[in-house]
Amino acid sequence: MKAKSKKRNQWKAWLYLLPMIILLLVFTVWPIINTVRIAFLCRWDPDVGAIVGYDYQTSMLENVHYQFGINNFINVFAAGNSFLTALGNTMLLTVLTVPISTMLALLIAVALNSIKFLKKFFQTVFFLPYVTNAIAIGMVFATMFGMIWPSPAKPPTSVGIINTIIEAFGGHYVNWIDRGSSYWANIAVLVTYIVWNALPFKILVLLGGLQNVDKQYYDAAKVDGASRWRIFWRITVPLLSPMIAYVVITGFIGGFKEYTSIVGIFGEDMGPYGAPGKLNTMVGFIYDSIPHNQGKASAAALILFAIIFIVTMINMYVSKKKVHY
Fold it and tell me: Topology of 80-322 in CATH?
């Protein structure tokens, strides 16, 4: 009797899960399978005189035959500077933003956990960027760092909020994102935006971990006369290591998929005026390839997946050595 009841409940569970399973199959599983398939489809184009990747419009024509090969991957690497630029920008932004945002989030979470007055208010303030549209935030940052520059031969009529603050402290305005701006000035703005946008989620995770730490550890350390700095490194960080590992891994995954921040600040040109594609990323490279060559875009997506997978496996291996559960 119990076995029949259990079997009936299992069918009910599958029935309740069926709509979500169908959605996952249609919008997640099938696109992944199709991306892998398209990445290895290629054909000889007599007009170009070369092997090209899959194109949806061409595939609908008669007498167009595709075969499996790795030419789409070769075309990605043959893209030269555009691919290397996208890969370099992605790696640089990820390496800079993940450690900075993780350390800042940890310090802010510890500070929020130690205060009582207006604690809920500050938690709400720090969480607001997480529920705000990323493109809208990018436009705000573009306004803060941007300048009104009618002519290259004339000084700007408006230097923006950030430059106004710099000049108020005796400094000279910096061309952050407008035409003629330097690469590292652009990267500084992007790092500032990405770190600020990544903080809320990491603070939320780390703060939740801190609130579950047994207070007896801190009481014992205070009795032994340990300093706050020693308590932080010897108790807080080890006990939070599972959460820190989680935000680091998710941070690297999110960093390699960075795209909206560049669009929000610099627009679809992915760079300052006069230098389109200067700050392009791997996701931007994929989006640029989709209208012209879906095979190349799919191959680039698989390359990005492989990079993220390798970095994630390395992070998980290191986590096993360093994380205290």
Answer: MetI-like fold (1.10.3720)
User: How many Å apart are CA 291 and CA 221, to the nearest integer?
Assistant: 61
The predicted model scores a pTM of 0.85
**Domain coordinates of the chain in residue numbers?**
2-75, 80-322
Q: Counting beta carbons within 10 angstroms of the beta carbon of residue 185, is it exposed (0 to 12), middle (13 to 18) or buried (19 or more)?
A: middle
Instruction: Determine contact, residues 206/236, Cβ cutoff 8 Å.
Output: no
Burial code of 238-248, b = ≥16 C-beta within 10 A, e = fewer? ebbbebbbbbb
Half-sphere exposure of 146 (CA within 13 A, CB side): 16
CB-based burial of residue 232 (10 Å sphere; 0-12 exposed, 13-18 middle, 19+ buried)?
middle
Contact status, residue 115 vs residue 122, Cβ threshold 8 Å: yes
Buried b (16+ CB within 10 A) or exposed e, 79-117: beeebebbbebbbbbbebbbebbbebbbebbbebbeeee
282 near 87, Cβ under 8 Å?
yes
Q: Please answer whether residues 241 and 249 qualify as being in contact, where contact means their C-beta atoms are separated by less than 8 angstroms.
A: no
So what's the pLDDT on residue 48? Answer: 57
Please give the C-alpha separations between residue 285 and each of 1, 193, 307, in angstroms, as whole numbers: 59, 21, 15
**Can you give the pLDDT at residue 86?**
92
Q: How far apart are CA 134 and CA 92, in angstroms?
A: 20
Q: Are 164 and 97 in contact (CB under 8 A)?
A: no
For residues 203 and 207, what is the distance between their CA atoms, to the nearest angstrom?
A: 6
**44: which strand partners?**
51
Q: pLDDT tens digits, residue range 210-251? A: 888 778 878 788 887 778 888 888 888 888 888 898 999 999
Is there a contact between 195 and 97 (Cβ–Cβ < 8 Å)? yes
CA distances from 106 to 20, 135, 209 (A): 35, 26, 11
Residue 248 structure tokens:
């680091």
